[in-house]
Write a structure and sequence with these properties.
By secondary structure, the chain is of the alpha+beta class. Helix content is 42%, strand content 21%. It folds into 2 domains: 43 residues; 101 residues, no CATH class. β1 and β2 form a beta hairpin. The protein is globular and about 55 Å long.
Length: 152
């Protein structure tokens, strides 16, 4: 495994344990430079391809999905373990569709539905990018249509 700090591959596993939901192995690693970092090992059933809105296709990148979810949840009171479970749930749901090609629209909808229950602020943040809000009125109209904040 390549160290994120010095970009060298001379690392060793210090600790290894399954995640809470049992869908991955969490490994703590130590580099010769002294840096510690965490990696996750997951089962991948099939290669998934994402079909973009313009028809372009690209391989599914779990890290890209993860980054977008972490951005939406930035500074929200959701712990890392819960976020990782959420990301795993979305990935599993995609694999369970049984299709090798999945539209970006399907993925975005899955994430939005999950965020609606997980954190309403993150839900609106993600929607603002996913739905491409351009003006303040777009936000207001969206929030007025949803009932996430009315439940609280």
């Amino acid at each position: 495994m390549i160290c994120p700090c010095n970009k060298k591959g001379d690392t060793s596993v210090v600790d290894s344990r399954p995640t809470e939901d049992g869908t991955a192995i969490r490994r703590r690693r130590l580099c010769i430079c002294g840096e510690r970092f965490t990696t996750f090992e997951r089962v991948q059933f099939r290669e998934l391809t994402v079909v973009k809105k313009n028809g372009r296709k690209s391989p599914f990148d779990r890290e890209k999905l993860s980054k977008s979810i972490y951005v939406a949840l930035k500074k929200r009171p959701i712990d890392t373990e819960t976020i990782e479970k959420f990301i795993s749930k979305i990935s599993r749901s995609m694999e369970e569709l049984g299709q090798s090609e999945i539209s970006s629209n399907t993925i975005g909808t899955m994430v939005m539905e999950g965020l609606k229950d997980l954190d309403p602020v993150a839900y609106v943040r993600f929607a603002s990018v996913y739905r491409n809000f351009r003006e303040e009125k777009d936000f207001v109209q969206f929030v007025d249509r949803i009932d996430v904040f009315k439940k609280r």
